[in-house]
Amino acid sequence: MTAQAAQQDTKSEDNPLDRLSTLLRDDMVRVNEKILTHMQADVALIPQLAGYLIASGGKRIRPLLTLAATMLSGGDMNRAYGLAASVEFIHTATLLHDDVVDGSLARRGKDTANLVFGNQASVLVGDFLFSRAFQLMVKDGSLEILRILSDASAIISQGEVKQLATTNNLQTTMNDYIEVISAKTAALFAAACEIGPVIAGQDLSAQIALRDYGLNLGIAFQIADDVLDYNADQKKLGKTIGDDFREGKMTAPILLALENATPPERSFWQRTIGQKQQNDDDLMQAMEILERHNALHKGLEMARTYGKKSVTALHNIKGGTQNEPLAAALSGLVEFSINRGY
């Protein structure tokens, strides 16, 4: 089975993300109400721009993780609603900022907010959503949760800056790459999960188990996302295929292909990535090189290694869990995140 076939062989009726969404449907309604309420502002452009991105869909994985971790831990779901909204605001703010930094043109099958509203508005509304996220944390009143989410926000920013430093840099190592995605993607997955047992007043072992579940899930998710950039159905993915290549991002597929690159292949990467000299045929040639080195398949195998760590962490919750359907959906979410086609 090819890497593309493996990722897209996920039947909608047996989709763990859909199962998780179904289990938490009523709770997500409450979260969405919080999101709609707290993205309002006196300046009309703010809810207009924020709503443009939020209403465009998305998987809502991060707030779902907060809800699931809280329910799994026996916590107060009323507290979880505001904090799940806070997590989604942080995520949305980072998307707005990322699209400006990357100069992206499409997200979730639509023009990016910066293309529609401009870079300045996107950056400022992203700042507004960060502020709203912290207001919701303060309203909750837990200093521990404030610490977890503020630490995650700082780590995300550091990850984005490190990615800038590795862009177009062929000296980037696989360790550098894992550090980048651990920070810019997995940190929020981890925090979204960790606040669940804090809401429930669980001990540190429960926090660590769910944090490790989220961290490794986030790493696996991002590796799979980086593979998708080279082999996904563009309509399903909702953004332009090959953006990472055009932007010179040193992601797992390129790093894996570089490990045993021939001199002509290394020259190709040096020209297209290192020197930013690309023509219309280069993306196709890049994909041929990745295929030659089985880099996309190897990338998914890397993702599965982290996926196994995620499932192990879930099983390490002290005393197990009484909510087997929810635990099963969280376990299945790991494989779905790796094999998804979008």
Question: Would you kindly provide a written description of the structure presented here, covering whatever features stand out?
Answer:
With 342 residues, the protein is mainly α. It has a single domain (15-339), classed as Farnesyl Diphosphate Synthase (Orthogonal Bundle), CATH 1.10.600.10. 75% of the residues lie in helices and 1% in strands. The chain contains 18 helices and 2 strands. It has helices at 3-8, 16-23, 25-38, 45-54, 61-73, 77-102, 113-117, 119-140, 143-166, 174-199, 204-231, 234-237, 243-247, 252-258, 263-274, 282-292, 295-315, 324-339; strands at residues 106-107, 110-111. The protein has a two-stranded antiparallel sheet. Strand 1 (106-107) and strand 2 form a beta hairpin. Helix 4 (45-54) crosses helix 8, helix 5 crosses helix 10 and helix 9 (143-166) packs antiparallel against helix 10 (174-199).
Short description:
With 342 residues, the protein is mainly alpha-helical. It has helices spanning 3-8, 16-23, 25-38, 45-54, 61-73, 77-102, 113-117, 119-140, 143-166, 174-199, 204-231, 234-237, 243-247, 252-258, 263-274, 282-292, 295-315, 324-339; strands spanning 106-107, 110-111. It is globular, with a radius of gyration of 20 Å.
Shape: globular
CATH superfamily: Farnesyl Diphosphate Synthase
> What's the helix count?
18
What is the CATH architecture annotation? Orthogonal Bundle
The radius of gyration over CA amounts to: 20 Å
- With strands numbered from the N-terminus, the spatial order across the biggest sheet is 1-2
* Uncertain ranges: 8-13
Number of strands: 2
- What is the rounded distance between the termini? 18 Å
Number of domains: 1
Instruction: Report the helical percentage.
Output: over 70%
| Beta-strand content | under 5%
The helix/strand class is mainly alpha
Mean pLDDT: 92
CATH topology: Farnesyl Diphosphate Synthase
Q: Tell me about the largest β-sheet.
A: 2 strands, antiparallel
- Order of helical and strand elements: HHHHHHEEHHHHHHHHHHHH
- The level 1 CATH classification is Mainly Alpha
